[in-house]
Q: What sequence folds into this?
């Protein structure tokens, strides 16, 4: 009995600790939205007054809208590429039964073990060698690489969660590999595909370390922010922009998470 | 009707389908072999070349590595990077463990929500998370002004920003979400029967934690340490934003070789050294993993 009260008290302390941890995790980030509404150049207490001026200054800024357009285009293309690679790599890893497929899958997850700065410089050497140079295409290549581990992991766990019998039934009924993949396995994992795409898009949209080396004359949104950080007067604008970016990230990541879980439930229910 | 019959007949080439295999392996194969292996090969190649301003350098030399090994500057910076990354790894793993433990054993119905909350920052901009710390630690920043406002201090202090401690705190915060998930997965996969057996055999909660839970979760702890250590040891953004000149890290040096200093072969040699260090860390982690694995 005393042991049980002990664990309950321990659990309460642990719960408090987790709460504190979450505060530590979110508090610094939430300061950005807080000060983005503050009527002062300085991000300091006491708060001066409520204003939307910093958000208004985001409108009609050609450098900013150019960077935003770049980020969106690069994000969509890179996420499409990374998702395509994630789907095919993980599918072949699970069902290809070849050492080559397993090797490709292992290498695809390797970028986790390479610091971003080295990914950046290795691609910088590569794109200069093949004549692309720092450009939007180079950024797309870099972001496919950065997002690849995510898409492979998401798709692999999804394909693995589909009962083996479904694929075997399709093959036994005479469907070709291609038909089985396109008509059975892909529709069953559609929510995960969308989830992988969204997470890959976010990875590209927020990525800074690699893009720093690969950008030519057209910056992406994180590079634009970086360039603005040198000017103390533009910090409130950066905070307003940061708030918008954080909101978009939260919404996309939240949707991706919901999709991943919802889809998984459906796949497990269907065969039963 | 005829198409149904044709489709129902399993054709032998459908079983092997080399075209399907080729098409499915192509995108991943291109990316992994060309963008990862070939690009890393280029770095290795460039590391053994001399700098003549051209893209791939000139000659064949180990001079770059001799410079790295003999110049004390690089030893200092490498050592500093290892210490900072080591401290960050230690801090993130130790603080993440109780959270992962709570998620695995105590969270109950709140588990999915909590898991989502701790992983959400992972998907937000790294640059913004670091920037947040810059405004927290700045001379005219949040921390100083809050302390003065509450009367704890009368003067703002310069002691926060531009210190290695600022780098450690910022990196630990930026990479905190990386550590929780691997540990949680390891804890969650411990069979509940093991814990019941321990308690049935009379182990107190703490003994059962120390002798059963902790050893069984070590693979997750090591994986967490690795995914935090690797990106932090090569980081150049955080030292630039909150670190000041006293916290230059090896990533900063690599970045400047490909920027201002414009000595790509030497930057490549530094990168190779960093990769070797990471390889050593991976091997040590693997060895430790195997030791813990054999104990269970």
A:
């Amino acid at each position: 009995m005393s042991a049980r009260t002990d664990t309950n008290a321990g659990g309460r302390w642990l719960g408090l600790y987790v709460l504190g941890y979450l505060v530590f995790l979110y508090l610094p980030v939430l300061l950005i939205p807080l000060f983005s509404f503050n009527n002062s150049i300085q991000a300091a207490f006491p708060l001066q007054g409520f204003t939307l001026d910093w958000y208004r200054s985001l409108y009609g800024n050609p450098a900013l809208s150019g960077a935003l357009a770049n980020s969106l285009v690069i994000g969509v293309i890179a996420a499409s590429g990374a998702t395509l690679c994630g789907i095919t790599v993980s599918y072949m890893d699970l069902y290809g039964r070849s050492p080559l497929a397993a090797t490709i899958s292992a290498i695809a997850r390797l970028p986790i073990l390479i610091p971003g700065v080295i990914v950046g410089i290795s691609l910088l050497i590569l794109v200069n060698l093949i004549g692309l140079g720092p450009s939007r295409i180079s950024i797309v290549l870099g972001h496919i690489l950065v997002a690849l581990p995510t898409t492979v992991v998401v798709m692999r766990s999804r394909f693995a969660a589909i009962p083996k019998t479904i694929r075997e039934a399709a093959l036994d009924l005479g469907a070709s590999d291609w038909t089985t993949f396109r008509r059975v396995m892909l529709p069953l994992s559609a929510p995960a595909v969308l989830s992988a795409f969204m997470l890959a898009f976010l990875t590209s949209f927020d990525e800074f370390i690699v893009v720093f080396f690969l950008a030519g004359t057209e910056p992406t949104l994180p590079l634009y922010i970086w360039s603005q950080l040198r000017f103390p007067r533009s910090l409130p604008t950066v905070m307003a922009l940061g708030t918008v970016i954080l909101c978009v990230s939260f919404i996309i990541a939240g949707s991706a998470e919901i999709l991943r879980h919802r889809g998984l439930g459906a796949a497990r229910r269907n065969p039963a | 009707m005829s198409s149904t019959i044709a489709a129902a007949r399993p054709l032998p080439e459908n079983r092997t389908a080399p075209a399907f295999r080729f098409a499915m392996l192509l995108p991943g194969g291109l990316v992994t072999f060309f963008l990862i292996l070939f690009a890393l090969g280029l770095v290795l190649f460039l590391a053994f070349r001399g700098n003549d301003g051209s893209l791939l350098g000139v000659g064949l030399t180990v001079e770059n590595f001799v410079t790295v090994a003999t110049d004390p500057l690089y030893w200092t910076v490498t050592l500093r990077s290892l210490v900072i990354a080591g401290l960050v790894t230690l801090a993130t793993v130790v603080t993440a463990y109780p959270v992962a433990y709570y998620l695995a054993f105590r969270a109950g119905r709140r588990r999915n929500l909590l898991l989502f909350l701790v992983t959400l920052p992972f998907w937000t901009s790294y640059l913004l998370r670091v920037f947040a710390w810059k405004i927290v630690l700045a001379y005219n920043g949040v921390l100083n002004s809050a302390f003065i406002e509450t009367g704890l201090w009368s003067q703002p202090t310069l002691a926060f920003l531009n210190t290695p401690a600022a780098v450690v705190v910022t990196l630990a915060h930026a990479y905190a979400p990386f550590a929780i998930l691997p540990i949680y997965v390891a804890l969650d996969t411990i069979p509940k029967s093991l814990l019941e057996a321990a308690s049935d055999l009379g182990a107190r909660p703490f003994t059962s934690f120390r002798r059963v839970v902790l050893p069984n979760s070590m693979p997750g702890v090591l994986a967490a340490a690795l995914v935090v250590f690797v990106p932090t040891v090569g980081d150049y953004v955080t030292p630039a934003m909150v670190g000041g000149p006293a916290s230059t890290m090896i990533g900063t040096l690599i970045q400047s070789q490909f920027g201002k200093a414009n000595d790509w072969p030497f930057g490549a040699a530094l990168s190779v050294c960093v990769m070797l260090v990471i390889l050593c860390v991976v091997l040590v982690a693997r060895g430790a993993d195997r030791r813990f694995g054999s104990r269970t």
Chain B touches chain A through 91 residues (CB under 8 Å). Chain B has 14 helices and no strands. The domain at 73-295 of chain B is CATH 1.10.3720.10 (MetI-like fold).
